Amino acid sequence: MCRCLEVSPSGYYAWRKRPDSQRTRDNRRFLSIIKKIHHETDGVFGCPRILDELTYMGESCSKNRIARLMRDHGIKGIPQRSRWLKKASGARPDGIINHLNRQFDADKPNTKWVTDITYIRTGEGWLYLVVVIDLHSRMVVGWSMSHKQDKQLVLQAVLMALWQRKEDEAVILHSDRGTQFTSDEYQRFLRARGVISSMSAVGSCADNAAAESFFGILKRERVNRRHYITRAEARSDIFNYIERFHNPTKRRKMFVSRKKVISLLKCSLKCDKRY
Description:
Strand content: 5-15%
Structural class: alpha/beta
Radius of gyration: 25 Å
CATH class of the largest domain: Alpha Beta
Number of domains: 2
CATH architecture of the largest domain: 2-Layer Sandwich
CATH topology of the largest domain: Nucleotidyltransferase, domain 5
C-alpha cells in the first residue's frame, strides 16, 4: 500500500499514530452536544436555536461551523411553513384602536401582550387553546384550554397572565376581532383591571402576527407530529410544550441576548480607553 501511495512505511505509521488535531477533537465534542440537543428537542431545533443553546452552555462556536457539522451528519430541524387562515370577526368596540400597529417588540416585560385562539384536533373533537404572549420575552405568560370556545376560555388565560405580573403598570393586550374579544364582558373585564385593549383591522392576520407565529410553531413542532386520541392527552402534551419546552427556551434566549449586549458594551469600553 505504501508503494502504491508513494509514501514511506515510517511516514505512514507516523501518520497512523499522530493524535487528532484540536479542531477535530472540538468538532467531535460539538457534534456530541448537537446530537444531544437535537434529540432532547424531539428533532425540532435547527442551526440558529442550537447555537443559542450552545452559547447558553458557555460554548464558543460559530453558526457556520454548527451548520456544517449538522449538514455533514444529516441533522436537520423542522423548516418553517407560513399559512394564514381567515377567521370570523366581530365589530371593533367603540374607542378600541390598534395600539401596536405591528410593532411586535417591547423594551420591558409586561407592557405589550398579544392573545389569540387556535384549534387542536383530537379523537374526541376540537380542543381550543388561548395564549397570552409577552412581546418582550416571547414567553407564554397566560394560557387556557377547553372543549368550549367561549368568553370564559379567554378570561382564564388573561387572568393567569395578570396573576404572574408583578408590576402594576398599564399593559396593552392586543387581539384580533374574534367574537370572544369584542364581547362587552371581555372589554369590561380588561377595563376593570387597567388593561388597555388593542385590536387588529378586519381580516388582517398580520396585525396579530406574533400570536399567529407562535401557533404556527406550536403546530409545526408538536401538534402536527402527534395524533391525540383524547382531549386530556392533548392538554398534557401542550402543557408540556409550553411550560417545559417553549418558555424555558425563551428564558435561555433572553439570557444569551443579555450576555451578547454585555459583551458588546465591554468591547466598546475597551476601545474608548485605547483612544
